[in-house]
Design goal:
heterodimer, A: four-stranded antiparallel beta sheet, about 50% strand
């Protein structure tokens, strides 16, 4: 089945220790997104790639970086995690084709990050 | 900018019908999505509306009025497994991303 995969599902890191979260997709979608979601809050878009074009949200801290080496993979790097970065990180994809349904997003299961 | 309002919490009885409302303000509206999210899990797609009217899909229906900036999700024959958060999200013309509301946490009781 075509899907969005995130590894690991649970990640524990130490305060200030860099951590990388990974996402892969078999949908061959053009667009990949990274969201941060804290308890009882809406998913907050951090950035997205349309193919290789990187789009950063204005309020995404510099501490968060992303890489997309190819169509299938996208990484979220947190350079110096703080306690406030503990959250669920969701990866999503969309086809990006014209027409509203091209915006339908398919989510991975998420990685829950704990910062100690 | 965008703004989405949904009730924070709702409770309904198993077997009943519940309507979850969503109002939005956005420039360049390009579709409204409803997602279901169970606790600790990723959102899953429920419905998409871009034209006014009602879209029915099994026990779930979604309605849109673009002139009023209003949508609702209707859940019929509620089951215990329908207890989840329901996220309203809007697409914006010229953008590849969706803007999500904070979600409505629905609790279904016996």
């Amino acid at each position: 089945d075509a899907m969005v995969i995130q590894n690991p599902r649970y990640q524990v890191t130490q305060f200030g220790k860099p951590v990388t979260l990974s996402c892969s997709q078999t949908l061959n979608h053009n667009v990949m997104y990274w969201y941060q979601q804290k308890s009882s809050q809406a998913p907050k878009l951090l950035f997205h790639y349309y193919d290789k074009d990187f789009n950063n949200e204005a309020d995404t801290p510099d501490n968060f970086q992303s890489r997309r080496p190819n169509t299938s993979f996208c990484f979220l790097d947190i350079r110096s995690p703080g306690l406030g970065d503990a959250a669920m990180y969701l990866c999503a994809t969309s086809s990006g084709t014209s027409g509203g349904e091209g915006y339908e997003q398919y989510f991975g299961p998420g990685t829950r990050l704990t910062v100690t | 900018g965008q703004n989405i309002d949904q009730p924070t919490e709702m409770t309904a009885t198993e077997g009943a019908i519940v309507q979850i409302n969503c109002t939005y303000q956005t420039s360049g509206f390009n579709g409204l999505f409803w997602y279901q999210q169970h606790a600790g899990e990723a959102p899953t797609f429920l419905s998409y509306n871009v034209l006014d009217g009602l879209e029915e899909k099994g026990r779930f229906s979604s309605f849109l009025s673009r002139s009023k900036g209003y949508s609702y999700l209707l859940l019929k024959e509620l089951q215990m497994k329908d207890s989840a958060s329901y996220l309203c999200a809007v697409g914006q013309t010229g953008a590849n991303n969706l803007f999500f509301g904070t979600g409505t946490r629905l609790t279904v009781i016996p």
